[in-house]
């Protein structure tokens, strides 16, 4: 029993030493780590600049912006005008203006002269009412069927005819389009005679005798 107890004491003493050594070793490591950390922290200069801590900003979402810009009260908008489609309306045809009515001329000397003046004006042939009337009265006294059977022209077989006593070759040479090709027609006779006088004398107004 004595021997066994002594052995137990030795084992307990050995175990205690081992525990103390282990505990001591762990403490030594802890102290060494503390001292090392302290040494590292004390080696940093006192005036060292601290690095700024990065902060993260979250961008506002589209929903947040929309809710922030939307007023708290409803906004009244003007009503949209109704637009009628052109297709619903019938297309109105474009009607050209009616031409002016054609002038009506009296079937007499006054009417013949006035109609002749309109034709002469349209063809840029100079003449006047008075110039035509004066020569008509001298040549035929206003008779559209007048004919001269006694002068040199009649002797040559081409007697003077009509209001202004025009011979057939002269009428054919100075006939104006738009009038009848008939020397006995009063308007055609006046217009052809005035055209001849314009080329020969400048105007019927310059004729004061047989021409």
Describe this structure in words.
The protein has 211 residues and is mainly α. Helix content is 48%, strand content 0%. It is built from 7 helices and no strands. The longest helix has 41 residues, at 2-42. The model is unreliable at 18-48 (pLDDT under 50).
Query: Which value, in Å, is the CA radius of gyration?
Result: 67 Å
Give the SSE order as H and E letters.
HHHHHHH
Helix/strand structural class: mainly alpha
Total of DSSP H or I helical runs spanning 4+ residues: 7
CATH topology of the domain at 109-206: Lysozyme
SSE topology sketch:
Elements: H1 2-42, H2 62-69, H3 109-122, H4 129-139, H5 152-155, H6 168-174, H7 186-201
Helix pairs in contact: 3-7, 6-7
Protein name: Transglycosylase SLT domain-containing protein
Keywords: Membrane, Transmembrane, Transmembrane helix
Pfam family, one: SLT
Throw out a few tags for this protein.
211 residues; mainly alpha; Lysozyme; transmembrane helix; Transglycosylase SLT domain-containing protein; transmembrane; membrane; Transglycosylase_SLT_dom_1
Q: Summarize this, please?
A:
The chain is mostly helical and 211 residues long.
């Amino acid at each position: 029993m004595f021997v066994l107890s002594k052995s137990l004491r030795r084992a307990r003493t050995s175990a205690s030493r081992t525990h103390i050594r282990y505990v001591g070793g762990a403490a030594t490591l802890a102290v060494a780590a503390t001292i090392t950390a302290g040494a590292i922290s004390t080696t940093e200069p006192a005036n060292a600049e601290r690095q700024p801590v990065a902060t993260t900003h979250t961008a506002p979402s589209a929903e947040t912006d929309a809710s922030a810009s939307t007023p708290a009260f409803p906004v009244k908008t003007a009503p949209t005008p109704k637009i009628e489609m052109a297709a619903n309306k019938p297309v109105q045809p474009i009607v050209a203006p009616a031409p002016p009515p054609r002038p009506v001329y009296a079937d007499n000397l006054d009417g013949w002269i006035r109609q002749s003046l309109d034709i002469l004006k349209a063809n840029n042939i100079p003449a006047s009412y008075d110039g035509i009337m004066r020569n008509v009265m001298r040549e035929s006294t206003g008779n559209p069927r007048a004919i001269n059977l006694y002068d040199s022209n009649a002797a040559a077989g081409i007697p003077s005819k009509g209001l202004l006593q025009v011979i057939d070759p002269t009428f054919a040479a100075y006939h104006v389009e738009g009038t009848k090709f008939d020397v006995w027609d009063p308007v055609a006779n006046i217009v052809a005679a005035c055209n001849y006088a314009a080329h020969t004398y400048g105007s019927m107004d310059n004729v004061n005798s047989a021409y």
